[in-house]
Every structure is written in structure tokens, then in C-alpha cells.
TrEMBL record:
Residues 4-255 form the Indole-3-glycerol phosphate synthase domain. InterPro entries: Aldolase_TIM, Indole-3-glycerol_P_synth, Indole-3-glycerol_P_synth_dom, Indole-3-GlycerolPSynthase_CS, RibuloseP-bd_barrel. It comes from Rhinopithecimicrobium faecis. It comes from the Bacteria. The gene is trpC. This is Indole-3-glycerol phosphate synthase.
């Protein structure tokens, strides 16, 4: 069983438990559920922004604890001030030490798009994302069948959410081309064995349609890499650990963006 299989199995249990605690009708009554989402593509096109989707990531399966001290609001506010186009907040607790409370805390201090970084296997999690203040949801092709991808994408769009569709290879990209998504991310990390290589981004960039935002995800730690990925055609860059592994992630992103 791969780590991705374990995460997905755990998600199905969590979702079943969450549905008992809070019904869909209750989520639909949360104040944030009715808000209009910020557009990821518009944010990326705003002058002065960097293309970086900066992630609040306390821990991960591959690295264990990354940062146990920096608070979510301080970090995401710093990311926004440094010119991030969007903020990613992990909401998985068992593998990443995140929570929905982190997501809503981030919403309180942000005026740019907010991504619920989660392993979505059920439309209930999309309703939760909206209810807790997200503008963007992640759909991971490796976790979902064609039917599930289609149903989840259409439900997210019906709530006015942006969709970041994540792929790892050409087969996953081809399965996703018909979906109504705003961005396609190439994950440089193989979620089954943790191997990270930018070769995935370079081999897929020209196969991603020009109508969606092209995002390179994971393993980015050098401003030179951003310049090279931009040259190849990427418009956005999802970065977590490189900032979060420092004692001051807000300072780390400020120094980083000066060099891109
Ligand atoms: O980060 C992991 O170890 C991981 C393991 C299994 C599934 C997903 C995982 N990470 C999620 C992500 O996609 C990253 O948090 C994100 O792309 C940022 O990556 P990085 O800049 O390398 O922290």
C-alpha cells in the first residue's frame, strides 16, 4: 500500500465521521459559504505578483515535522505581502498536522485566493472548503476515477470555486483535459514514492492547454528554478517546504522573491 493509498483510505473514514457531526445543509448555512470567491487567474495576472502559490505546511509524510512554531496567520500574511498570487493551506491532520481551523484563520487575514490543500474524495469536502473560506480546491487525478473527477469538478464550479487539477504524468493529464478547471498543476513529487524531479514539469508543460494556468508543484527551492520554469511556460509555482523549513517563512519568501 502506498502513502497515497493510506491517505485516501483514511480520508474516506474522516469524511464519513464528519458527515455525522455536521450535515451538508448545516455547512451550506455557514456565513462563508455564500461569499464570492477570488479568481486565481485574475490574481495571477495582477501586476506586481510573483506567480508563487505559497503553502503553509507544518509537516509532511516525506519530511515529518517541518515547522512547529510559526503561526498560520503570521505566515500567510507575510506570504501575501511578499506578492504571492494565492495561499495554500493543508487541512489534513493525520499526515500534515493541518486543520480546517487553519484554513478559516488564514481566510481572516487574506485578500487573495486561498487553496484548501486536501485529498478530496467526496463532494462533502468541497462544501467544507467553501464553508471554511477557500477559493480554490485541489483535485488529484491519481486519487480519482474519471467519473469522480467529472462529478467533483462540476460540483466545485457550481459553488463558484476555482479548481487546481493536479497531475503527475501524461496519462493523468489526458484524462483531465475535458474538465472545467482553472489551473493544471504538475506535481514534481511522485505521491507514491516521494521521488521529486522537475523533469515531470518540463515534459508536460507544452501539453497543458493555454486556457488554464500552468502550475509547477513541489521541490522548488531556488529562484533560478522559477526563472527556468517561467522560460519553459509555467505561470505559477507551488512552494511549501522551502519557506516553512525556516524559522521565519515570511522573511524567507521576501528574500526569495527578490531573486526571481
Ligand atoms: O509533501 C509530501 O511529503 C507529500 C506526501 C504525500 C502526498 C502529498 C505530499 N505533499 C503535498 C504537496 O503536493 C506539497 O505540499 C506541495 O506541492 C508543496 O511541495 P514542497 O514545496 O516540496 O513542500
Amino acid at each position: 500500500m502506498t502513502i497515497l493509498d493510506k491517505i485516501v483510505a483514511r480520508k474516506k473514514v474522516e469524511v464519513a465521521e464528519a458527515k455525522i457531526r455536521v450535515s451538508l445543509a448545516e455547512l451550506e448555512g455557514y456565513p462563508l459559504f455564500k461569499r464570492t470567491c477570488y479568481s486565481l487567474q485574475e490574481s495571477a495576472a495582477t501586476a506586481g505578483r510573483t506567480g508563487i502559490i505559497a503553502e503553509y505546511k507544518r509537516a509532511s509524510p516525506s519530511k515529518g515535522l517541518i515547522n512547529g512554531t510559526s503561526t498560520v496567520q503570521d505566515v500567510v500574511k507575510g506570504y501575501q505581502d511578499a506578492g504571492a498570487i494565492a495561499i495554500s493551506v493543508l487541512t489534513d491532520s493525520d499526515f500534515f498536522q493541518g486543520s480546517l481551523a487553519d484554513l478559516s484563520a488564514a481566510r481572516e487575514v487574506l485578500s487573495i485566493p486561498l487553496l484548501r490543500k486536501e485529498f478530496i474524495v467526496d463532494s462533502y469536502q468541497i462544501a467544507e472548503a467553501k464553508a471554511y473560506g477557500a477559493d480554490i480546491i485541489l483535485l488529484i487525478a491519481a486519487c480519482l476515477s474519471d467519473e469522480e473527477l467529472t462529478a467533483l469538478a462540476h460540483y466545485a464550479k457550481s459553488l463558484g470555486l476555482n479548481i487546481l487539477l493536479e497531475v503527475h504524468d501524461e496519462a493523468e493529464l489526458n484524462r483531465s483535459l475535458h474538465l472545467p478547471v482553472d489551473a493544471i498543476g504538475v506535481n514534481n513529487r511522485n505521491l507514491k514514492d516521494f521521488v521529486v524531479t522537475l523533469d515531470h514539469s518540463y515534459s508536460l508543460v507544452n501539453k497543458i492547454p493555454a486556457t488554464v494556468l500552468k502550475v509547477s508543484e513541489s521541490g522548488i527551492s531556488d529562484p533560478k528554478t522559477i526563472r527556468e520554469l517561467k522560460e519553459a511556460g509555467f505561470q505559477a509555482f507551488l512552494i511549501g517546504e522551502n519557506f516553512m523549513k525556516t524559522s521565519d517563512p515570511a522573511f524567507a519568501i521576501q528574500s526569495f522573491v527578490k531573486e526571481i
